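INFO  loader      accepted 1 record
INFO  loader      residues=112
INFO  predictor   begin
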Amino acid sequence: MGLLYLAALAVALTGMVMLDRRFRLFFWSAPRRAVIVLTVGVLFFLAWDLAGVGLGVFFRGETDFMTGVQVAPEVPLEEVFFLTLLCYLTMNVYTFVAARLPRSPRAGGGTP
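INFO  predictor   done
INFO  writer      dumping tokens
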């Protein structure tokens, strides 16, 4: 039962990868840029979590669905997978929407 949440996150991440591959959104569009953006995003939110833990705002909840493995004090392993999913989902949605929005003409470059 201790791997249930981690397994659910892995399934969701797999779904993000499949959507990304199908629509060439993030990693399949620009892999180098995607690695940089995803890494920076996850590290930013991990730093945010650590700051929250240090200030006593964040703490690890106890549940039977989690592994109990911690990557830092009060930061469970599942948090890293959740933050990866969050950042990956955000970039997939962003690139999907940005590709489908009509582009506005550049200021001063269009005809009056």
